[in-house]
From TrEMBL:
The protein, known as: NADH dehydrogenase-like protein YumB
Name of the coding gene: yumB
Keywords carried by this UniProt record: FAD, Flavoprotein, Oxidoreductase
Top-level taxon of origin: Bacteria
Family of this protein: Belongs to the NADH dehydrogenase family.
Organism name: Compostibacillus humi
UniProt KW Oxidoreductase keyword: yes
GO BP terms: aerobic electron transport chain
Limits of the FAD/NAD(P)-binding domain: 5-322
Cofactor(s) for this UniProt protein: FAD
Length: 402
């Protein structure tokens, strides 16, 4: 009898952890493992705001998949998933097709524009390595053009960021670090460049308490970030964001939208039942009614039984789901009972640039300033370790022992 074929879609946090765990838990005789990803590299989605600001090199935030997954043990296919034909146990790729016995869908997030007019056409998104790199290149090009006299309007130097959630705030934190350096490089006075964060809600970062939020606002304002809170963006034009009832235009030469994310559109195209763009999975991480399909990470909602609400989609959640999905696939193959997923919340930290941040760790301990920034780097390296092992941390890690 041929051995069962496990196909994993996406080599992000959830997908890569699943594959690495499967290779540890199953012998080569027990299952064939296939990993399909758009690129031949994995990128750290949680570092993309740094790539977008230009505070780290894109190559620091990615590594080759074949460096951390043995191609003799796992068949690696670099191709783009178009559709999952659930009824036929088949995945359609851009250039070929693959059949499966067990499927793990871990295709991550895409930026959600909520249908806001002009957003797709005129705003940049922090979505993957290429889209993030484009933002950093664009910002620097604006500075270069201004310096060369090719543009004379000061507004062209403004960087406007829509959304004051984690991504928007971590991004403006990086901008506050890089803008003074770019000003020096291009002989532009710092006061000519505005970094403006635009948030619909009355305040930013709703998941943190008032003290930490006011610390973040004060810290960022002192480094030149302006906030427009309670300003819902209703449209994006080539000149900037339109906000409020009087349709005020907040102008910028670089317009970035960080107003939210949703699950990969492949899910909808493949006929999965969606709730706000993602699949509600059972406690064992399988799709209800689909015995052999797991949906992980930013493509699914997993219910927190204590709160009755789904866990917020994070890298931390995605890596933990990868471990349980691998465990459950092993159980299916060996005809053993499946486990329920239980999230082990290790806390939340948001960076505000290289040496500042805020966070809640160890069930309620608050952190701010340099301690939070240091903790963020430890968390980043821990996640890198989970997907890439010690070599990835040594090559790309952020904590420098000396
Ligand atoms: P991803 O890690 O995004 O991986 C998806 C993979 O699928 C990618 O390799 C992609 O190339 C591939 N793919 C996509 N479409 C296709 C296709 N059609 N065909 C083939 N391959 C495809 N969370 C935290 O816990 N802590 C943080 O500090 C944090 N910081 C963040 C900072 C930013 C700027 C952003 C945007 C998010 C941050 N998050 C953070 C959230 C976290 O990044 C996501 O929750 C996490 O990446 C989800 O993991 P995933 O495995 O579902 O998807
Ligand atoms: P988000 O949904 O968390 O935040 C989006 C923000 O945009 C919200 O504050 C929202 O009020 C605002 N917004 C929405 N529509 C708007 C409009 N029309 N005008 C103005 N503002 C508007 O999205 P995100 O920040 O991209 O985060 C996505 C996910 O990634 C979250 O689950 C988050 O937890 C996770 N993440 C975590 C970290 C971290 O742990 N350090 C960092 C980045 C992202």
């Amino acid at each position: 009898m041929s051995k069962p074929k496990v196909v994993v879609l996406g080599a992000g946090y959830a997908g890569l952890v699943t594959v690495r765990q499967l290779t540890k838990k199953l012998s080569p005789e027990e299952a064939e493992i296939v990993l399909i990803n758009k690129h031949n590299y994995h990128y750290e989605s949680t570092w993309l705001h740094e790539v977008a600001a230009g505070t780290i090199n894109p190559n620091q935030a990615r590594f080759m998949i074949s460096d951390v997954v043995n191609p003799n043990r796992v068949r690696l296919i670099y191709d783009t998933v178009q559709e999952i034909k659930k009824d036929e146990n088949r995945v359609v790729l851009e250039n070929s097709e693959v059949t499966y016995d067990y499927l793990v869908v871990a295709l991550g997030f895409v930026t959600n524009t909520f249908g806001i007019k002009g957003m797709d056409e005129h705003a940049f998104f922090i979505q993957d390595i290429d889209s993030a790199r484009l933002i950093a290149e664009h910002i620097e090009y604006q500075f270069a053009k201004y310096s060369a006299g090719e543009i004379t309007d000061d507004d062209a130097l403004n960087i406007v960021v829509g959304g004051g959630g984690f991504t928007g705030i971590e991004f403006v934190g990086e901008l506050a670090d890089i803008v003074p350096k770019l000003c020096k490089k291009y002989d532009i006075p710092r006061n000519k460049v505005r970094i403006i964060n635009v948030e619909a809600a009355p305040s930013i970062l709703p998941m943190f308490d008032k003290d930490l939020v006011s610390y973040a606002i004060q810290s960022l304002e002192s480094r030149g970030v302006e906030f427009r809170m309670g300003a819902a963006i209703s449209e994006c034009t080539p000149e900037g964001f339109i906000v409020g009832e009087d349709k005020e235009l907040i102008k910028g030469g670089t317009i970035v939208w960080t107003g939210g994310v949703t699950g990969n559109p492949v899910l909808g195209k493949s006929g999965f039942e969606l709730v706000r763009g993602k699949v509600n999975v059972d406690a064992d991480l399988r799709v209800p009614g689909e015995e052999n399909i797991f949906v992980l990470g930013d493509c699914s909602w997993v219910m927190n039984k204590e709160t009755g609400r789904p866990y917020p989609p994070t890298g931390q959640l995605a890596t933990q789901e990868g471990v349980v999905a691998a465990e459950n696939i092993k159980a299916l193959i060996r005809n053993e009972p499946l486990k329920d997923f239980v999230f082990d919340d290790k806390g939340t930290v948001a960076s505000l640039g290289f040496s500042d941040g805020i966070g809640n760790i160890f069930q309620g301990k608050k952190l701010q300033g340099k301690a939070a920034a240091a903790m963020k780097k430890v968390v980043d390296d821990r996640t890198l370790y989970l997907v890439g092992g010690p070599k990835a941390v040594l090559k790309k890690g952020k904590v420098r022992p000396f």
